[in-house]
Amino acid sequence: MLHRCAVLLSLPLLLAAQTPPAFEVASIKPGNPEQRGGGVFYHPGGRFEGSRVQMHFLIEQLYGLRDYQVVDGPKWVYDWNAPFDIQAKAAGSATKEQVWDMARTLLADRFQLKFHYETRDLPVYALLPAKTGPKLSPAANHGSGWIEPVEIGFLRGKSASISQLVNSLSALRREIDRPVVDFTGFNGQFDFILKWAAPGSAPDDFGQDIFSALQSQLGLKLEPRKAPVRVLAIDRVEKPTEN
Hints:
Oligomer: single chain
Helix content: 10-25%
Structural class: alpha+beta
Largest sheet: 4 strands, antiparallel
Number of helices: 5
Number of strands: 12
């Protein structure tokens, strides 16, 4: 009897643990596509803000993905001229991780977002050693490395790994139109400076695009290929009603 009571008493706790975390209040309205700026923000006290955010960008930010990893959605999901303004608040104070969990629940409830993960062969750029050989300098100091975007067309790496360089290159959407995948086989940490003439900016001292700059300055090249990439495939998503 005591054993049965213990099981019954534990059921409410189990059900509560299985309930997805949700905001106490949430407002979703169409954003103004003519206004510049925007993004996804966590505010202390359990507040979440999406300012003029595209659905595609919301999914990327909340699930830690790149733009090329969100596939199979309807056209409005990818339309920069169809943004949303979102204001939401937790019942009490909440950490950023807890607010992000609630925001994912919001997408499922209000946008009816359903998806699955799969791996697809997608066009990528393979990062490889150039024929001249790598020109990366071993890091002067080891530890937690970083890559800093000093300005447009300028990256500085300190104790940086190749995976960090790959992530930085993949984020250069204006210069590189597909994900970058590491095929160098290099381990270790490196110090480097990479400068190039970014689109729409005045040419730098080198006057090189990103592809030429990688070869001449770091001894690396980008080669078009296809490679397996993990993607989030949208099964269902709907525009929410305002409130």
